[in-house]
Design brief:
140 residues, alpha+beta
Length: 140
Amino acid sequence: MEAAPVPRVGVVAFVIKGRQVLLGRRRAVVGNATFALPGGHLEFGESFAECAAREVKEETGLDIHKVEFLTVTNNVLLDEAKPCHYVTIFMRSVPSDATRSPETLEPEKCDGWDWYDWENLPKPLFGPLEVMIKEGFSPF
C-alpha cells in the first residue's frame, strides 16, 4: 500500500529592487514554463529567513538582506502532472548589491532570472503567485 503524499514546506523570496521583482522561468514538473520567485524546500532546523537567503544564493548567486516574513499560503495543486500540497512561506528581501546581475546557477530548474516591473509582470505566472496577485497582494 502506497503512503499518502504529505504537505511540504516551501520558502520563496520576493527579491525587490525599486518597483521590480526577480522572477525566473521554471523548468519543473510542477509549474513548468511559468514565471516564479526564487525559493525551495525548508530544511530541518532552518529559519524562514535562512532558507530564503540560501535558496536565492543557490539559484541566482545573489546575496540578500533585510529578509522579512510577508505571508503564508496553503497550495493544493491537484491539476499538475505530479499533484502536490505545499505550505508556502513568502519572504521579502532586497539584494545586498543592487548592481549585481542574477546568474542562472541551476539551469536544469530555471531558464534564467530577470527583473520585472511589478506593474508589468511576465506571463504565465506560477499558479499560486498569480492567485495572490489577482487577490490584490503586493510585496511593497
